Amino acid sequence: MFGHTAEDVFAGPLGRVFVKKVLQQLATLPNYGVLETELSGEPVLVSRTGYTGEDGVEIILGSSQALGLWKCLVEEGSAIPCGLGSRDTLRLEAAMPLYGHELCEKTDPFSAGLGFAVNIDGREFPGAEEIRTRRSSSDRCRIGLVFESRRAARSGDHVLVSKNGTDSICGEITSGSFSPTCERGIALAIVDRAIAEQECELEVLVRGVRLPAKLVSLPFYRRHRHD
Question: According to the model, what pLDDT value does residue 80 have?
Answer without folding.
Answer: 83
